[in-house]
Design a protein that fits this description.
Layout (H helix, E strand, L loop, with lengths): L2 H5 L3 H4 L4 H11 L5 E4 L11 E5 L3 H5 L8 E2 L13 E7 L8 H11 E8 L3 H4 L3 H6 L1 H10 L3 H7 L13
Parallel strand pairs: 1-2, 1-4, 2-3, 4-5
The structure holds S-adenosylmethionine.
């Protein structure tokens, strides 16, 4: 059973996309005419020209809204699609769940014709947020066990640029 089959049963009712994040993701996708969303969940942040959602959890797939892109039940580490399947591939708040980050990123690069867009958090910045730092250190510690170092991620992506990365100092 995929983890989100257990913890994702109310995801579409409680998760609301942030329009500021959506704008940045869509800007990063640029003029891609076709997009595949990997770790797509219930479809948050998918632009209208999304052609396929890749998602391991049947529970998350079942919550995708009517009319959204078709889904393929699969994990990032092994995506049963041909090379260069879409102009762009996006992966939003999912890489920290992958059992093999290197394999997963390799698959994103393989199935994307032109662009890969990954959205995640930078733990070096996040842990300094005053609310976590002063009041919720356990939350910061927990997310620290899950976070993907941004430098590792960008190295795997072949030196991709960071966007909107605040100065961690
Ligand atoms: C926090 S949710 C994000 C979902 C969606 N991208 C969003 O922004 O709402 C994380 C998603 O990653 C998926 N996931 C977990 N392990 C995965 C893997 N190995 N490959 C692809 N997706 C995975 C989960 O099933 C879940 O749908």
């Amino acid at each position: 059973m995929a983890t989100y089959d257990r913890i994702g049963t109310t995801y579409s009712g409680t998760r609301r996309p942030d329009p500021r994040i959506a704008a940045r993701i869509h800007a990063a996708l640029g003029d891609a005419a076709t997009v595949i969303n990997v770790g797509a969940g219930t479809g948050s942040y998918e632009p209208p020209h999304t052609v396929l959602a890749v998602e391991p959890s049947a529970v998350m797939i079942a919550q995708r809204p009517a009319g959204s892109a078709p889904s393929l039940q699969a994990s990032a580490e092994s995506i049963p699609l041909a090379d260069n399947s879409a102009d762009a591939v996006m992966a939003v708040l999912t890489v920290h769940h992958w059992s093999d980050l290197e394999a997963g990123v390799g698959e994103l690069l393989r199935i994307a014709r032109r662009r890969v867009v990954v959205f995640t958090w930078d733990q070096t910045v996040y842990r300094k947020f005053w609310l976590l730092d002063e009041y919720l250190p356990e939350v910061a510690a927990f997310t620290g066990t899950r976070s993907v170092p941004v430098d590792r991620l960008t190295a795997l992506l072949g030196g991709a640029p960071h966007r909107d990365r605040p100065d961690p100092a």
